[in-house]
């Protein structure tokens, strides 16, 4: 018999730890005076790290803009010096976190199971490798021009390559950490990391946008004929570069190579920023580990979706190559054919994506799975990034719709452009709804399988004649899981097919703009209505967010596919 004292002791032990409704453990001792001390320290950490991030970002924006619009007083060398300083400071903090903070006893008591999934960290490594290659190509390029370029342009790629290697390692190992000690220092260090990556992203986006922006050579040029040709806005700034001769013959090759690798560097900075933000939110967070799920992915679960997606991907790559080749010929007829081909390809892909996404939304409407309980910084960030980054494409689409309608929808190209913009708006709305619903659903549970074998075992116990019969355990039966899950199997199959199809489609919609296709400039209806300066600003602001939206959608679709 358990005595009264034993019952009281057990009750006290149980009440020592309370689990909140959000899945985080709360110590009741802190519910009085101790809680105020912890909450005060947490608020100071949030405020101080927020101020650090805000000041670095605003200063970075000012220097980036100054280096673009005022190349005399504020040159690119000044921007690179600023970047070298914050990159070195961030690298020093990450090394300190790795060799000291993370190794202190009880420094990391909890791990966020939703943070830093393996496919996100795998993407970080892929983009990191490409970023390091880009830095190597930059070093080789600027070494060939060392006699007429600032040494800072060689120093920055070296520092950035070291920064990428250290940061990739730290995020791969510690992305799930919920740090419990040195909270103010850790919060400030993570916000410094986030800000540094965003400033590097802004610089890369600016250089890439200036490299891809096209403009009419003649200011009086009448662009309504779609007969103009490409002219890089940096051509005036590079006019003086012709006097600087490269000391080796590979400068042009390496320059083109590192510009082709810019999209990977841009995505790397955004991936790292997102992972640093999640770590910042997880500082001092206490987790209930019962909410983690072991998800698996099998290529045998899907067939039609990947095949259809691969067809769209291959067709998109073919049309992209043909588009770039035809536009580079600077012939009006070739450019018109290239634009028509590009728009038709986009319209077909976006229309199929819209239909697939609508079917997925209907299935989610019929789905009986519970909503995910509890707060998760990773999930909140995913939804925020999806909605926020999609605004870039919304911006370009609505400006295009207004421009085409104002011009009277003249010609096949403008008609296709209008159709493509309207369908893109619809597809973005449907895909956002599909992903948000999918990210907030609990994974499918194998309850039907457990019920089947529970009933079999119960029947065996009730029937004496069956007790002597041999029943093979559930885990050894060669029966596919889909056959045991009844009505839910077709829903799961369709959701996985839809996710796989949309994943490949979003990949090609990322590749086309990320690697240089700019139909917004080749079709001059936008610059006719808004003037070139305004239209270039709209495209160069919206395009980076649109490119990131497609890549982030790929990661979200993969997660929804796993939970389905």
UniProtKB/TrEMBL annotation:
Q: Recorded GO terms, molecular function?
A: proton channel activity
The residues that cross the membrane are 46-69, 75-97, 118-142, 154-172, 184-204, 259-278, 299-323, 343-364, 385-406, 494-512, 532-549
> According to its record, how does it sit in the membrane?
Multi-pass membrane protein
Which UniProt key words apply to this protein?
A: Cell membrane, Hydrogen ion transport, Ion channel, Ion transport, Membrane, Transmembrane, Transmembrane helix, Transport
Whether Metal-binding counts among this entry's keywords is no
Write the protein's name.
Answer: Otopetrin 2
Q: Which residues form the signal peptide?
A: none
Query: Which organism's genome codes for this protein?
Result: Cyprinus carpio
Main location, first listed in the record: membrane
InterPro entries noted in UniProt: Otopetrin
Compartments it resides in: Cell membrane
């Amino acid at each position: 018999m358990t005595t009264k004292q034993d019952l009281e002791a057990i009750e006290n032990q149980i009440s020592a730890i309370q689990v909140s409704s959000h899945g985080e453990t709360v110590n009741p001792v802190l519910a009085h005076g101790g809680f105020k001390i912890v909450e005060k320290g947490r608020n100071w950490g949030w405020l101080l790290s927020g101020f650090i991030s805000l000041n670095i970002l605003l200063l970075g924006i000012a220097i980036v803009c100054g280096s673009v619009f005022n190349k005399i007083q504020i040159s690119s060398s000044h921007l690179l010096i600023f970047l070298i300083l914050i990159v070195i400071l961030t690298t020093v903090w990450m090394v300190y976190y790795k060799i000291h903070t993370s190794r202190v006893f009880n420094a990391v008591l909890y791990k966020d199971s939703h943070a830093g999934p393996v496919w996100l960290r795998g993407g970080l490594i892929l983009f990191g490798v490409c970023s390091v290659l880009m830095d190597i190509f930059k070093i080789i390029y600027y070494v060939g021009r060392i006699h007429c370029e600032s040494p800072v342009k060689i120093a920055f790629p070296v520092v950035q390559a070291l920064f990428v290697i250290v940061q990739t390692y730290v995020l791969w190992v510690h992305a799930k950490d919920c740090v419990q000690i040195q909270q103010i220092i850790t919060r400030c260090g993570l916000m410094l990391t986030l800000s540094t990556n965003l400033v590097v992203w802004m610089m890369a986006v600016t250089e890439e946008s200036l490299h891809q922006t096209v403009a009419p050579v003649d200011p009086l040029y009448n662009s309504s004929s779609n007969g103009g040709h490409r002219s890089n806005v940096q051509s005036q700034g590079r006019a003086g570069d012709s006097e600087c001769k490269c000391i080796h013959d590979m400068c042009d090759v390496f320059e083109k190579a590192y510009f082709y690798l810019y999209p990977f560097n841009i995505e790397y900075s955004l991936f790292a920023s997102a992972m640093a933000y999640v770590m910042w939110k997880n500082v001092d967070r206490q987790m209930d580990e019962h909410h983690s799920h072991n998800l698996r992915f099998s290529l045998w679960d899907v067939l039609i979706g990947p095949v259809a997606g691969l067809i769209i991907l291959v067709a998109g790559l073919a049309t992209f190559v043909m588009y770039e080749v035809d536009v580079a010929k600077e012939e009006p007829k070739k450019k018109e054919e290239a634009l028509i081909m590009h728009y038709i390809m986009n319209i077909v892909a976006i229309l199929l994506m819209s239909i697939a996404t609508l079917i997925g939304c209907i299935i989610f409407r019929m789905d009986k799975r519970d909503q995910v309980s509890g707060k998760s910084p990773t999930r909140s960030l995913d939804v925020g990034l999806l909605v926020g980054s999609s605004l870039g494409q919304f911006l370009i689409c609505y400006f295009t719709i207004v421009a085409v309608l104002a011009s009277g929808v003249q010609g096949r190209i403008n008609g296709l452009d209008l159709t493509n913009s309207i369908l893109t708006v619809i597809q973005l709305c449907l895909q956002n709804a599909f992903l948000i619903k999918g990210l907030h659903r609990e994974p499918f549970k194998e309850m039907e399988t457990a019920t089947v074998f529970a009933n079999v075992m119960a029947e065996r116990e009730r029937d004496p004649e069956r007790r002597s019969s041999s029943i093979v355990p559930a885990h050894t039966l060669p029966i596919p899981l889909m056959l045991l899950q009844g009505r839910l199997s077709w829903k799961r199959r369709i959701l996985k097919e839809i996710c796989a199809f949309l994943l490949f489609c979003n990949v090609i919609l990322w590749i086309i703009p990320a690697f240089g296709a700019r139909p917004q400039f080749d079709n001059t209806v936008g610059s006719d209505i808004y003037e070139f300066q305004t239209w270039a600003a709209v495209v160069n602001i919206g395009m980076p967010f649109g490119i990131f939206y497609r890549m982030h959608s790929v990661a979200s679709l993969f997660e929804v596919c796993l939970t389905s």
